[in-house]
Amino acid sequence: MExxxxxxxxxxxxxxxxxxxxxxFVRELLAAFALFLLxxxxxxxxxxxxxxxxKTWEAGLGALLASQxxxxxxxxxxITFAEDWARRPIRRTGPEMPGSI
Length: 101
Hints:
about 100 residues, mainly alpha
């Protein structure tokens, strides 16, 4: 009977240690899950914030371009003039022309 009680004591001790290890691993896994959830949540929040900023910029710029305000029209004419001026070919006159040697 005494030997049976000793085995039972060691069995309960082993089961207690096994349960403690299991609880420790579960705690570690839950902590790792919480960290991953936090990091991925921050990444998703940053992406969603950038997406919303881009869409807001797009809507604001569309409204600005559709505006008939005189300042907007004059800026648009200036930009058009600069684009036309930039597209003009550069013409050289006189002896510095390549090919007139």
